[in-house]
Structure formats: C-alpha cells, structure tokens
Amino acid sequence: MSEKQSVLAGFKEFLMRGNVVELAVAVVIGAAFTKIVNAVVEGVINPVVGAIGPKDLDAYQSCLKAPCSVDPETGEAIGISIQWGSVLSASITFVMTAAVVYFVMIMPMNRYKQRVAARTPVVETPPTKTELDVLTEIRDALVAQRTSSEESGGATVGAPRDGGQSPKS
C-alpha cells in the first residue's frame, strides 16, 4: 500500500511541477488557436486566392502524366498529379500560426524578461586568479629580484660568491 501511495505522490509531484502545467496549458491554447488560424485561412485567405484561380486551394494541382482526371465509374485517379494546393494551404497556416505566436507570445515575453533583468542588480564577483596569472606574477617577481641583485653588486641569486670555486679542505 505504501508503494502505491509513493507512486501516486511521485505522480502528483510530477504534475505539479511548473513545466508540466505550463505545457498542458500551452497544448490547450494551441489547439484552440489552431482552429482560429484554420478559420482565417479557409475564410479569408482561400477566397482571396480563389479570386485568382479555383475557389479552393486544395484544387491547385499540376499534372505530370496526362490525362489527370478521375474515372467516373471506378473513382480511381487517371494519370499522375501533384496536389500542391494543399501544401500551399498548410504552409500559409503554418506561417500565420508562427507569426502570431511570435508576435503575441514570444516578443512580449522577451521584453518582460529584459525589463526584469534590468531591474535586478548585477552582483559582480571578484575575478579569480588563473594559473596563468599566478605564473605571470612569479615571473615578474623573479625578474624584479634579478634586476635588483644585478644593480646591487652583480651577483645572481643562488650563484656561489667565490667565483664558482668550491672550498678546498
């Protein structure tokens, strides 16, 4: 029984995460929005295009192998035709959907995020030293030590003071 409760508790936790709830809302809104876009394409765009040619975009086609017709007795298509009108209609629907989603949802959200980011103070972290910085400091210290020892008597650090000869015993 406790395993069943833990599974249900885990499932409830999964559902209550912000991303899952937001995704569910987006799917519902997207489904409703798709119906609106389809109505605009079928009720406004298709009639405007229909003023130039056939009333229905789905009727636009090209014939690869003539004759392109439907046999009235069997209902089979004769010839090879490309139904590019339905592709055009779907493309118009996609572009309109993408444009509305971008201009109505994405742009305002990006502007909102920029305003929030501009309001929050930026905390500057002190720069951390890298190996290269430490090695540069060591090099500079050694160069400074060498120059100061050369100016004070010409002896170098670590060199024997008796001219390089070892004492005899």
TrEMBL record:
Belongs to the MscL family. It is a multi-pass membrane protein. One of its GO terms (cellular component) is plasma membrane. InterPro entries: MS_channel (IPR001185), MSC/AndL (IPR037673), MscL_channel (IPR036019). Coiled coil: none annotated. The keyword Transport applies. It is found in: Cell membrane; Membrane. Homopentamer. Keywords: Cell membrane, Ion channel, Ion transport, Membrane, Transmembrane, Transmembrane helix, Transport. It comes from Streptomyces chumphonensis. The chain crosses the membrane at residues 20-41, 82-105. GO terms for molecular function: mechanosensitive monoatomic ion channel activity. Channel that opens in response to stretch forces in the membrane lipid bilayer. May participate in the regulation of osmotic pressure changes within the cell. Its main location: membrane. This is Large-conductance mechanosensitive channel. It comes from the Bacteria. Residues 143-169 are annotated as: Disordered.
